[in-house]
Amino acid sequence: MVHLSRLLIALLIAALLPAQIESEKVFGPEVQTGPYKHPATITGLDNGDILLAYYGGEGEYANDTAVFVARKKKGESRWSAPRRIAQDPFRSVGNGVIWQAPDGVVWLFYVVRFGDTWSESRIAAKVSRDRGETWSDSSLLTLERGWMVRGRPIVLASGKYLLPIYHETGEDRERVSPDTTSLFMIYDPAVKQWAVSGRIRSRLGNLQPSPVELQPGRILAFCRRGGGYGGQDDGWLVRAESHDGGITWGPGEDSEFPNPNSAVELLKLASGSLVLIYNDSFKDRTPLAAALSRDGGKTWPVKKVLASGRNSFAYPSAFQARDGQIHLIYTSDGRKQINHAVFTEDDLGAPPHASPSPRP
Questions:
Q1: Is pLDDT at 276 greater than 70 in this prediction?
Q2: Tens-digit pLDDT profile for residues 82-95
Q3: Shortest CA distance to 206 belongs to which of 173, 228, 181?
Q4: Whole-prediction pTM value?
Q5: Does domain 23-258+309-343 match CATH 2.120.10.10?
Q6: Confidence tier at 64 by pLDDT (50, 70, 90)
Q7: Could you tell me the residue ranges of all domains in the chain?
Q8: Residue 198 burial by CB count (10 A; 0-12/13-18/19+): exposed, middle or buried?
Q9: How far apart are CA 299 and CA 80, in angstroms?
């Protein structure tokens, strides 16, 4: 009877605890697109398929890099082999962003590097009208030196698309200059024209913004900090807001979240909750954690580790599917492996009314 009671208690506790979030390897060194596979980006399609894109080659600054895409069809468990969809015959390419717009068009934004450092980059784009099966020619979206992409666009209440971009300055491969800024391109699908927003400026510089629209016209963004890649005890994620649909931005301020100079993902779920996926460290790209807010980002009382250990878990990219599941990808193993995790808001272990955590 005692053993049975203990078993029942254990089962009850297991039922109440949030589910363990597990990841699967999508691609590793065995895939013949070069050892480098970083960063990756993910989007869900209107037919239930999932598209994943990354840029790969011999290394971050190699001349042979290209953007590859793979598909996981609805109901299937395996990903297709990666297929090259963007490459420059004369220059290296970088960060790719793949995203399906409400009209069904799939966009690929990516970086073309014109010099020795990323501050010499431009943004290019391609589109697909058959869910990523075939693609248009490439076109330079911007001619401005040092403009780059990292995160997927969001659709605003106005119907316009907000594409997060950033302007990286400086010639040091190991440091981001303090005048590096985040900004946005705003696309009006009614007239098919792009406009450029104001900038987010901050103490250390900031880049790679990830935005959500809290209310019509009010946008919250978290940005990766600037500075070096070593540890920095005052290196926080940068937080900024816009109150006019992303046209102008308030100052970038230090948030409560540490940042080791690594990318971040911010999602607004169908429930209205916000999920922030980031590296919970001032120095290392481990652990990879998710924080949850149910009050528009005022407090973040719940945090769950998604991946940890002596590794680097970096560049999270995520979306919420129509069934409520959150699909996350990130890279690891020296930027040679892409991983995929699937979880729900409930898996984060959020009680209905949790007390906020104090700022460290």
A1: yes
A2: 999 999 999 999 99
A3: 181
A4: 0.91
A5: yes
A6: confident
A7: 23-258+309-343
A8: middle
A9: 40
